Amino acid sequence: MSNIALKAENIFKKYPSVLALKGVSFEIKEKELFALLGPNGAGKTTIIRIIAGLTNPTSGKTYLFGKNLFENPIWSKSQIGIVPQYINLDVELTVEENLLIHGLLYKMPFHFIKKRIAELLEIADLKERKKSKIKELSEGLKRRVLIIRALMHQPKLLLLDEPTIGLDPHIRRRFWSFIKNIQAIGTTILLTTHYMEEAEYLADRVAFIFSGGIIAINTPQNFISNLGNYALDVYLSDRVKSYYFKDKFEAEKELIKYSKDHFVSLRRVNLEDVFLNYIEKNL
């Protein structure tokens, strides 16, 4: 039996003035957290909108737990929870009321809605705020409500489109823990982000997307180790040139050489190094 939650095959999306997606293909395993990492305008949100059934691809196929997503639209929407980039909660209603409305829209039995709300408020540590109006919450708490609202109807796949955009760094890091806890209860997650450290911390696997196409897929650890363990940054007059080394001794030898004429620094390789290296090769 296949353990593939989502499979995209050669997805193209063409608008009148731009080709937004250029043959995108990838697979996501059940219970995996898979990240699409790329700059703004790379095509991340277009992929989310296609999977969510909000826009049709120009060509290509997408399978959700083995079923053709576009041939089974009603069933597909029941299996997917969507967390958009921007907060679209009813700010004049309470946390509980927003969750209740979502449950009613999905025709969930009322007794189950109440039970589900209690479960999700516990998971999100929002029990004390269930009677609070959305407009009274911080940005971080609003985003928690967005996520548990998307989980109300017990979807198997959760789509997170730039879920920490606009959050302060310390709040973003607390939010990462919340997302990993959602994965731990068995939810498959597709995350889009342009924050390199977010993908490195959260994702089981990462797909680099650039200019409408996926240019590489791997685990964060494999991406980094394939490039090198240490990065030597050499500050030239017009740019910073980075060199990568598996061995720290070799990196330190080069540091001594370059430090005679330039400011240099030695550090560990991160996912941003890998991404920029791929982009440089694909320009």
Summarize the structure.
The protein is 37% helix and 29% strand. With 283 residues, the chain is of the alpha/beta class.
CATH class of the largest domain: Alpha Beta
**How many domains comprise the coordinates?**
2
- Give, in order, the helices and strands: EEEHEEHEHHHEHEHEEHEEHEH
Termini separation: 40 Å
Q: What fraction, in percent, of the residue positions are helical?
A: 25-40%
Mass-distribution shape:
globular
Radius of gyration: 21 Å
CATH architecture of the largest domain: 3-Layer(aba) Sandwich
Family: Belongs to the ABC transporter superfamily.
InterPro entries: AAA+_ATPase (IPR003593), ABC_transporter-like_ATP-bd (IPR003439), ABC_transporter_ATP-binding (IPR050763), P-loop_NTPase (IPR027417)
Protein name: ABC transporter ATP-binding protein
GO molecular function, one term: ATP binding
Structural account:
The chain has 283 residues and is an alpha/beta fold. It has two domains: 215 residues, P-loop containing nucleotide triphosphate hydrolases (Rossmann fold, 3-Layer(aba) Sandwich); 58 residues. The chain has ten helices and 13 strands. The strands form three sheets. The protein has a six-stranded mixed sheet with strand order 6-7-8-3-9-10, sandwiched between helices. GO terms for molecular function: ATP binding; ATP hydrolysis activity. This is ABC transporter ATP-binding protein. InterPro entries: AAA+_ATPase, ABC_transporter-like_ATP-bd, ABC_transporter_ATP-binding, P-loop_NTPase.
